[in-house]
Amino acid sequence: MISKRVENVKMLIYNSEIMRNLMMDLLDLAQMENSTFKLNKSFFNIREVIKKAFCVVGHAAELRHVQLVEAEVLNEDA
After folding, report:
1. pLDDT, position 49
2. Largest Cα–Cα distance in the chain?
3. Phi-psi region at 18: left, alpha or beta (left = phi > 0; alpha = psi -120 to 50)
4. Handedness of CA 69, 62, 15, 37 (dihedral sign)
5. Residues 38 and 31 sit within 8 Å (Cβ to Cβ)
6. With CB atoms 3.0 to 4.6 Å apart as the test, which of 18, 22, 32, 57 could cross-link to 37 if both were Cys?
7. d(C-alpha 66, C-alpha 53), whole Å
8. Closest C-alpha to 14, from 72, 73, 55, 71
9. Mean of the pLDDT values across residues 7-30?
10. Which has the closest alpha carbon to 50: 26, 76, 24, 29?
11. Rounded-to-integer distance, Cα 57 and Cα 55, Å
């Protein structure tokens, strides 16, 4: 029961991150239209992003009785 709540909180946090990214995209669009856009280079862990996406989609899949299957990564050093 507690683990389910923890997963729900994690999903809420990730959803808030998605909303923040959408708002930042809108601000970037406004900067592009005003010719004041500045590129912000930042690194991120793509595997972590995919895991978080699975958490978000996993909830919807669970409600629809769909099973998500993770693919095996062939080369983790790449």
Report:
1. 82
2. 51
3. alpha
4. positive
5. yes
6. 32
7. 15
8. 55
9. 87
10. 76
11. 6
- 32 domain-assigned: yes
Q: What residue numbers bound the domain in which 8 lies?
A: 2-63
* Domains contained in the chain, number: 1
Residue 72 maps to a domain: no
* 3-state SS, one letter per residue, for 25-72: HHHHHHHHHCCCCCCCCCCCCHHHHHHHHHHHHHHHHHHCCCCCCCCC
Per the confidence metrics, is the pTM higher than 0.85? Answer: no
| Domain assignment of residue 70, yes or no | no
Give me the mean pLDDT over the 18-35 stretch: 90
| Residue 69 domain flag | no
Q: Say if residue 60's pLDDT is above 70.
A: yes
pLDDT per residue over 35-47, tens digit each? 998 887 888 888 8
Please give the pLDDT value at position 44. Answer: 84
